[in-house]
Specification:
This protein is mostly helical. It has helices spanning about 1-25, 30-55, 65-80, 85-110, 110-135.
Length: about 140
């Protein structure tokens, strides 16, 4: 399973890098075709990420469906179950919120390419860490 996750992370990195290259080559403001191509490539990358996240042993934590994470968190609050899962959900929500704010600010005040680069950079670190982790398990 670890090798499958590494494969998906590498594919996601390559797809987001492809979206960044399309954005750079198209130049902002994007036309219809580059915008659709970027959206399609990023959508496939995010769907792959979601598929891997669904297999993680953390209940009610998904990457692309923020509502399910918030629902799980609300259930924890209602039942007064403050477990490790609740903390993970809070961190996930804060990470998604901060990423959305940072991406929005970059698109509005810098460029869409900068926002895509912000997504690619940490994914490069995750890919390197996952690769290192996989090698150390052998």
């Amino acid at each position: 399973m670890i090798h499958d996750q590494l494969f998906v992370v590498v594919c996601e990195l390559l797809l987001l890098a492809l979206a960044l290259v399309i954005a750079i080559l198209a130049g902002a403001p994007f036309g219809v075709v580059p915008r659709a191509a970027i959206a399609a490539v990023v959508a496939v990358a995010m769907d792959m990420q979601n598929a891997v996240a669904r297999r993680l042993p953390v209940p009610d934590l998904t990457t692309t469906v923020l509502t399910m994470t918030l629902t799980g968190l609300a259930a924890d609050v209602r039942t007064n179950r403050w477990t490790g899962s609740a903390l993970i959900r809070i961190i996930a929500v804060l990470a998604m919120l901060s990423g959305a704010v940072a991406g929005t600010l970059l698109v509005l005040h810098t460029s869409p390419e900068a926002a895509l680069a912000l997504a690619v950079a940490p994914l490069m670190l995750v890919t390197a860490a996952a690769s290192w982790s996989t090698r150390s398990e052998r």
